[in-house]
Amino acid sequence: MKLLEYEGKKILQTSNIAVPKSFVAGESADFLPAVLKSQVPVGGRGKAGGVVIVKDDAEYTAEREKISHLEIKGYTPKTILAEQPLDIDRELYLSLVIDKATASTELMAHKRGGVEVEDNAAEDFLKLTLETGSADAAGQQLADYYDLPDKTFALQDLVEKLYVLFNQQDMTLLEINPLVLTKTGELVAADAKITLDDAAQFRHPDWSFELDPVETNFVTLDETGNVATIANGAGLAMATVDAVADNGMKPANFLDIGGGANEASVLAAFKRITEYSHVKVIIINIFAGITRCDEVARAIIAARAQLDDLPPLAIRLAGTNYEQAAKLLQQQNIPIHANLDQALAAAKELT
Amino acid sequence: MNAQLLTGKNVIVQGITGSHGSFHTRAMIAAGTNIVAGTTPGKAGQNVDGIPVYNSIVDVQNDMSVDTSVIFVPAAFAKSAILEAIDAKVPLIVCITEGIPIHDMLQIRQHLEKSSSQLIGPNCPGILMPGIIKLGIIPAAMGLAGTVGIVSRSGTLTYEAMAGLTEYGVGQKYVIGIGGDPINGTGFTDCLELFQNDPDVDRIVLIGEIGGTTEYQAADYIAEHVSKPVYAYVTGHHAPEGVQLGHAGAILGSQQESAKAKTDYLRRNGARTSTSITSLLTAVTSDKK
Fold first, then answer.
1. CA–CA separation, A52 vs A38, rounded Å?
2. Residues 12-41 in A contacting B (C-alpha not used; CB under 8 Å)
3. List of domains in chain B
C-alpha cells in the first residue's frame, strides 16, 4: 500500500531522520511562511499547482482553500501538509527498493534530484546492494558519489537508519526525492514516497493509513465490454480474459474470486458486473484445487436467485467435487460446460 | 534439478494438523505419495490418519530420514517453517502457503543460496507426476501419465493445461507449478533443465505471466540448451499497465514485462507460442506423436 508524504515522513521521524518542521494545515497556520503541499499519491503535484508558498494569513487561507479542491490526476487531497521552507543548496536523489530479479535490497542515488530526476540517464545512477553491516561502506560510497566528503558520517548514519526502517516496516519502496542539502549543511528529507508490503499487515497492527490498499482482485478493463469474467486464481482469470479477447469478444473485467468462492463473494461479483450495461454474458471459469466445485455451484445458484437482471451465465467448472456441482446446476436447469472452449462457444452465441 | 530429487522416498508435511494440511495429506497419500510424518509445534504424539505428528523436523530425523517436506503452515509462520527445513538440510522443500511477505522471502533466498536445498514455491500448487507422486495440491484425478513436462507460474493455469492435455489423451510426466510470487525458489530454467535431461519427456509446456523477467531467462535457456519442442503461453495480454491483477507478481511494470514482449522474445528463441490457453492446448495436442 502507498503512503502519503506526511505519513511517510512520520515514519522517518521515528528514526530521527531530519524532515522539515511541519503541521497539518487546519483553520490557522502554526507558523508562516510555509509551503502548502497537497497530499495526493501521484507525481507532478508542483506542476499541477498542488505545492504553493504562502507568506501571510490571508494567502494561507486562500491557497489552502484552493488546494483542498484542486484535483490532481484523479485525486483531491483529504490532508494538506504545511512545511517550513528550506534554504536549499543542493537537491539529491536517494531511494531503497527491492530488486526482484536478484532478490536483494538496492540503494539508488543521483546527484541531481528533484522533479526532473526521471530525465537523468539510467546509467548515471549510483546503485549499491545493501545488506546487514554494509551501511557504512555504502554511506562512504554515497559521500564520494555526491561529492560531499564532509557528510560521510551523516550519510552513513542516514543509510543505516533507512535500511533498518526499510526492513522493520516491510517497505518495498522508500524514495527521498529530493534529499536536500541546506545552506547550513544539513541533510533533510524534503519529500518521502513509501510503499508497504500488504502481505505483512499481520505483523503491523499499528498500520493505519489514509489510502485504502488498492484492490487487486477485481479490475475493470473496458466498461463497454460485452463479456464479464469470473475465475479463480490470477493466472486463470487473466487467461480467461485472453481467451475471451482471442475469440473476438470484448472482456469487461478481470476477477480473481480466489479460493473461497461463497454465496456472498459470488453475489458481490454479480452485483458489480450488472453495473456494466453492455455485458451480454458472464463467463464463470473455475478450476477447483483447494476450492470445491459443489460449494461454487451452491453459491452461484443462491446468488443468481437474488438478482433479476443478471445476464446469462456460461459456466465451466472442473476439479474437486465436479460431479456434485454438475448435478446441482442441472437441477436448476443451468447449463454447465466441460471445458473453456465450450463455455466460450456458448458465450459467443449470446454476444 | 534432477528427477531423483522429486521422487525422494520419505515425505513429511509441515503444518499437517491444519485444515489444509490434513485434507491434502490424505489426497497426496491417495495419489501415491509416501508420507511418513508431519510436524506441528506443540502437537507431538498426535496423529493424522495414522501419520505420526512431531514437534519439529529434527525430531522426525531422530527416527527416520526426510527427503522432502511439503509446507502448509499459515503465512505468518511460513518463514520459520521454510528456514527450519533448510537448516535440517531437507533436499526438496515445497511451500504451498500464499501471502508470505517479500522481506521474508529475501531472507529465505539468502539462506537458500548457502544451502543445498531446493525450494519450490511459495504460493504454488507444487508438483504432480501422474501415477507416481504428488507433492502439493494439484488435483491428481485430472492428470494422466505420459511424456509432457509442464511448468507454470500460475496455479490454476497449471491445472487447466494439465486437464486440457488429459482430455485430449496427452499424458504428462511432470506437472510443476513454481508459484507467482515476485521472489521465489525454483524458476523456469531449473524445470527446463529437468525436462530436457529426462529421456521420457518429449514435449514441454511453459506458462508465464505478466510481471517480472524470468520468462527472458527461460527463453535464453531454451535457445542455448533445449532441443525438445517448447510450447509457451504468457498470460495477461489484456492487462493494463501499473495495475496489479491478483497476486503480487502479476503486475505489468514496464513494456518489457508485458505478455506481448515476453511472447515475442520466447518465439524468437525457438518456443512455439500461443496467445490463449485454448490455442496452446490445440498446438500441443495437434503435434501428437
1. 9
2. none
3. 3-120 (3.40.50.720), 143-286 (3.40.50.261)
Q: Would you call the peptide bond into A33 cis, given omega within 30 degrees of 0 as the criterion?
A: yes
Does residue A122 belong to any structural domain of this protein? Answer: yes
CA A290 to chain centre: 28
> What is the number of structural domains in chain A?
3
Domain end marker among A203, A238, A255: A203
Q: List the CATH number of the domain containing A65.
A: 3.30.1490.20
Residues A114-131: pLDDT tens digits? Answer: 877 777 777 789 999 999
Q: Which three cell numbers stand for residue A272?
A: 458489480
Residue A76 pLDDT > 60, yes or no?
yes
Cell numbers 506423436 correspond to: B289
Give Cβ neighbours of residue B16 (< 8 Å, ≥ 6 apart): B22, B25, B38, B39, B40, B48, B51, B53, B72
Of B102, B167, B236, the CB nearest to A199: B102
Residues 6 or more apart in contact with residue A323 via CB below 8 angstroms: none
Please, are residues B200 and A324 in contact by the beta-carbon 8 Å criterion?
A: no
Domain that holds residue A264: 218-350
Residues A267-320 have pLDDT tens digits of: 899 999 999 999 999 999 998 876 788 989 999 999 999 998 899 999 999 888
Same-domain pairing of A96 and A33 = no
Q: Which of A104, A238, A320 is facing B235, going by the closest CB pair?
A: A238
Q: Is A221 left (phi over 0), alpha (psi -120 to 50) or beta?
A: alpha
What is the pLDDT averaged over residues B75-99? Answer: 97
Q: Given an 8 Å threshold on Cβ–Cβ distance, is B157 in contact with A214?
A: no
- Flag whether residue A100 sits within 8 Å of chain B, measured between CB atoms: yes
What are the tens digits of pLDDT across the range B103-157? Answer: 999 999 999 999 999 999 999 999 999 999 999 999 899 999 999 999 999 988 9
